[in-house]
Amino acid sequence: MNNPSMVNLPFVYAFLLKTKRQWQWMIGVGVLICIILYAILAFPNAHAPNRLLVIPKGCTRYQLKSKLENEGHIKNGTIFLWATYLLRYYPENRPGQYKIMAHMDNWQMIRMLRGGMQHPVKLTFATAANKASLIDQLVRPIGITKAPLWALLNDAEKLSAYGFTPENVLTMFIPDTYEIYWTITAEQLISKIHLAYQRFWHTIRLNKAKKIGLSPTDVSILASIVQAETNDPQEAAKIAGVYLNRLKRHMPLQSDPMLIYALKEKQCGIKRVLQQDTYMDSPYNSYRRKGLPPGPIGLPSMAMIDAVLNYIPHDYLFFSAKEDWSGLHYFARSYTAHLKNAYKYRKALNKLKIMR
Length: 356
Hints:
Elements: H1 4-7, H2 9-42, E1 51-55, H3 61-70, H4 77-86, E2 96-100, H5 106-114, E3 121-125, H6 131-139, H7 146-153, H8 156-160, E4 176-180, H9 186-200, H10 203-211, H11 216-229, H12 233-248, H13 256-263, H14 302-309, E5 318-321, E6 329-332, H15 335-351
Antiparallel strand pairs: 1-2, 3-4, 5-6
């Protein structure tokens, strides 16, 4: 009688051989899949050097792929697109500004983008002629559109919570560099600006403002007028002293930049104020109205605000630009002396045929 175990050996051998081939095939397929996954997810795909990427709102996978390719962020857009499908990444869910580091792989990039790990935007503004000019600067590097910001800066009720009005809200914006996220909202931006405003107006500055009898808003309004008169820091403190002397004596400020600001609402390119202009009806006509205007005539710099707070005490009541176009001024105590100085400047304007 034959041994059963001996009879089944060929069958067992064939089964093991078949199983070995299957395992070899499965291992081969597994290795191939690992290679493909490595190529898609782990192979460095970002160009050097580091680059900033802005993903706009509503951006799709295909739009992001094209943006990454066109702006030179990655080496292979198709592989990146496959990675977005594998990792179920939807760029429309996480707009913003991101920093693509050199030699990042797709896994690292998508993990950062999907997690919303944004790189801060440096928002810088130094000056602005009015709210429209300021808004243009604010929206340029971030994702806010003009409409909501314009609406907020003209909303009396919302601005009152910060202690400002639509007319003087420009004084809340202290020129500096701010770090914010691209996805910041208009309300969040105003809150951040207000916090910076409160830090700027610390106890020392508040005490100086109180000493000269002005609120922080009034100081900034006066600083905007001084800034329109001169760029020289030392003269700014002297001119601030003239205006403060006039305010104390309840005299009209008689500021040409204020009148030009009012006139520019109707016409552009004004370089010279005429006698007829002093009769216009405007809260910014300081020839007819006493005191400070309801708002600034521009965005004053920190230096100009400090020039007002640290003004040079003197007894001058008048000043006039010098005829040498140096940007400097003559100062006078009497109106008679002022008229002589002003005549020199008018004569220089006439010589250059600057009539308006």
